[in-house]
Amino acid sequence: MTWDDFSKDYDSNQWYLRIKRVKTQQEAKLMINKVAMNFILPKRSDEELVFPHLKSGYSNTQLKQWIAEVEINKNLSLHTAKNNFVVMYYRKNNGQYLCDLMNILQHKDLSTTQRYLAGLLASEVGTVGSIDFDI
User: Fold this and answer.
1) What average pLDDT does the segment 85-93 reach?
2) What value, to the nearest 5°, has the Cα angle with vertex 79 and ends 78 and 82?
3) CB neighbours of 71 closer than 8 A, spacing ≥ 6?
């Protein structure tokens, strides 16, 4: 990932990361948390890597070592991190604020967020079915 992948909306002082969705190949913008941006700023040249020492995939020896030390038996990825965040957000807020979660996930419809969350919670307990959301 290079700095050219980032853009800033100066009116809202909000940073975005341009990505290409895997399934649809459509371009999308992901909003980047201001705290995260403060961690990686200052911006350098557009062609320079944002995280020059980070290796792609699972070839990072340090990451593999950390995973082994904490006895995680599952591959870690941005996808699993997103799934874990969604479940933790839902639990921390006792099932409330689903509209906020919908916005964070950049879903256009609340039913998409509900299906996504229901699938995550069902796979967690090893069941298949629907979950009632009180909205």
Assistant:
1) 88
2) 85
3) none
